[in-house]
Amino acid sequence: AWLHHVAAQTVADVPAADLAARVVAPLERLVADPDLAASVRTAGREALVALDAGRWRPRHQLAHNDFWWNNLVRPAARSGLDWPYVIDWGGSAVRGFPVFDLLRMAQSLGLSARAFAGELRRHAHAIADTPAHASHHLLAALAELGDHLGQWPKAQYARVGAEWLDYLRAGVRLSGGGADAMRDAAELPAARVTAE
Q1: Per residue in 90-146, pLDDT tens?
Q2: Which has the higher per-residue pLDDT, 80 or 27?
Q3: Mean pLDDT, residues 138-163 taken together
Q4: What's this model's pTM, rounded to 2 decimal places?
Q5: Cα separation of 10 and 63, whole Å?
Q6: CA quadruple 106, 111, 114, 118: dihedral positive or negative?
Q7: With contact defined as beta carbons under 8 Å apart, do 185 and 23 qualify?
Q8: Measured in whole angstroms, how far is the alpha carbon of residue 11 from the centre of its chain?
Q9: Neighbouring residues of 113: CB distance < 8 A, sequence distance ≥ 6
Q10: Could you read off the pLDDT of 28-48 as tens digits, one per residue?
Q11: Beta strands in the chain (DSSP E)
């Protein structure tokens, strides 16, 4: 619930002037990265197609970028707080991308795909979007994170990206939100991929 609340309070469309630098260029680099799984590169192309066609509006929101159960600290009972403390904000971004934190927490808690689908629907509602666009938001986050890996080993980043995309797609299917994403995939233009 906390994450959905934060998303609803901080979500905003990526300004048109920032799309090329913040979304398109990182996604194009992701698509061209031979170290990433084919499924991740294809999903990156799908996000670019949806953006080009006007079917997806990239959004920003406050993003922790390492939001998992071990970064939550339960407040003392006498504090009167209902929410846990969220720690380790070193990789956070005020203008991060939706869905990444939701996936990280769901994975760390071992949520089933069905339980995750319910959380995904709530999160999509909080950011005024549909679950079908969740993979686009994830790929935008992965593309941006891929440009700034820091201490994150590239092989682990590549493995996690593919695993999370699979988990997300299962959640999207169960949420009933997969039709738009499938239509986007069917319209992939070959010219959009600059290097594979």
Answers
A1: 989 999 998 999 999 999 999 998 999 999 999 999 999 999 999 999 999 999 999
A2: 27
A3: 95
A4: 0.85
A5: 9
A6: negative
A7: no
A8: 13
A9: 167, 170, 171, 174
A10: 999 999 999 999 999 999 999
A11: 12-13, 59-63, 72-73, 85-86, 93-96
3-state class (DSSP) for residue 129: coil
For residues 44 and 143, the answer to whether their CB atoms sit within 8 Å is: yes
**What values do phi and psi take at 168, rounded to 5?**
-60, -45
Q: How far apart are the first and last CA of the chain?
A: 40
Q: Which amino acid is at 149?
A: L
Candidates 127, 131, 126, 111; CA nearest to 177 is: 131
φ, ψ for residue 95, nearest 5 deg = -110, 60
162 Cβ contact partners less than 8 Å away, ≥ 6 residues apart: 36, 37, 39, 40
